[in-house]
Each structure stands twice: as C-alpha cells, then as structure tokens.
Design a protein that fits this description.
- The chain is an alpha+beta fold.
- The protein has a domain of 107 residues.
- It has three helices and three strands.
- A three-stranded antiparallel beta sheet has the order 1-2-3, with helices on one face.
- The radius of gyration is 33 Å and the shape is rod-shaped.
C-alpha cells in the first residue's frame, strides 16, 4: 500500500507526514515574538498617554491658579490695596508662581493681568519643564454685562 502526502501534510493513510527541519523551525516562536511586540507597543502607548495627561492636567492647574490669582488681585484692588502681592500668595498656594503681574488703571476702572508658571514633574528630556497661563480681571465702568464678558459693571 503506497501512501501519498497531500498538501495539508497528512498522508492519505491517515498518519501525519513528517516535515523537514527547515519547514517546522521557520515559524517556531513567531507567536511569542508577535505577542511581545504587541505588549511593548501597548506599554509605549500607555506611557505616552500618561505623559500627555500630565501636561494637560498641569496646564489646567496653571489656568486655575492664574484665574484665581487675577480675581483675588482684582478684589484686593477694588478695596484700594495693591493686588499683585495677593496674586503671588494665591498662586503659591495653588502650586504656581507669578511670572508677571500688571495693574492698569485707577481705583474705579482697572484691569489686572496675572501670568503664572507651573513646573511639570518629573521633567522629561526634550519636553517642556513648565507650563504658563495668563488671566485677567478687573472693573470697567460702563461696560455692559454680556455672557462671556470678563468685565463687570458695578451696581
């Protein structure tokens, strides 16, 4: 009885055909390499997402610190006292520091602009080590209250 080997690797008599060493060894371990590569790519994507999230959160914190510092400075100026020292204190309490504080105007009509800097930790090579944000607040007489208007009309 003569057994012929089909393309599927089985003999017609029902026994598996033996494969040569070059055929069976060429694919041995390829699933492991593919799996390890896929896991490495997933880890890199997760790491990149964590880095981006850290910068987004730092930018939001800087924005909040700038807003709060500018509003606090404006409220202090509204009471006739200098606002920039208060802005510095508020920024420090929020983990940022004031880079620039400008006060324009007099006691009745004024604007204060505060720029804060927040360090990003841990700093990564090739990436910015800080984020900045700027906010303005003040009191302008005669400016109508409209949605989205940063200025208010005293009552």
């Amino acid at each position: 009885m003569s057994a012929s080997v089909s393309r599927s690797g089985w003999r017609s008599a029902g026994r598996p055909a033996t494969r040569s060493a070059s055929e069976s060894g060429s694919q041995r371990g390829s699933a492991t390499v593919l799996t390890v590569s896929a896991i490495a790519v997933i880890f890199m994507l997760v790491g990149a997402a964590i880095i981006v999230t850290g910068y987004v959160l730092a930018a939001r914190r800087a924005g909040q610190a700038a807003d709060l510092a500018a509003l606090s400075a404006a409220a202090t100026i509204d009471f006739g006292e200098p606002g920039c020292p208060v802005a510095e204190q508020i920024a420090l309490k929020n983990g940022a520091r004031v880079v620039n504080c400008d006060h324009v105007g007099d006691v009745l009509e004024f604007a204060v602009t505060v720029e804060v800097r927040l360090d990003v930790s841990p700093p990564l090579p090739g990436m910015p080590d800080h984020v900045t944000s700027r906010a303005s607040a003040g009191c302008m007489v005669g400016v109508p209250d409209t949605p989205g208007n940063a200025w208010h009309t005293p009552q």
